[in-house]
Automatic annotation (TrEMBL):
Domain of life per record: Bacteria
Source organism: Cryobacterium frigoriphilum
Record protein name field: Uncharacterized protein
Amino acid sequence: MILAAQSHPVTYGALALLAVSTVVLLSSDMPLYAGDPLHGLPHDQSLLGVAGTTSEPLSPGFTQTLNLELTNPHDFAVSVDTLAVTLIEVDAPNATPQRGCSLADFAAVQVAQSLALTVPPQTTATLLTLGIPWEFLPQLAMLNPNVNQDGCKGATVTLQYEAMGAQP
């Protein structure tokens, strides 16, 4: 198993997104660990990077597409067969007891098809350029319940991206 973790904040309008990328790649060879702080290996040995955010601000009742970017810094191809987006936490500095903001205000919509992606050596490519149609890309939604969501203005949502696959 090869683990890699990355994080970077991105702010768009009223809502900031912090993406924490975690990539888990399974190999038929002996387990390897790269970019895994638990095993003391440096981040620059990561097998695959995953990054991305929405291109527009979120607002209640709307969904934004995540055309994630996969980076393969190595001299060998990496195949990816599973990709997941998980909501980790919400930091909402404007939330009050009367106007809250929590993970319950958001939803992650997963890739709508099984994956069979190959990221070529030394390449950075988006899911679109790797052949996933726009309508099947993962999405981040801000739900629109029948309550005031002003507490979510200026909130930061932390996402985790997780990919599974192998070196072909």
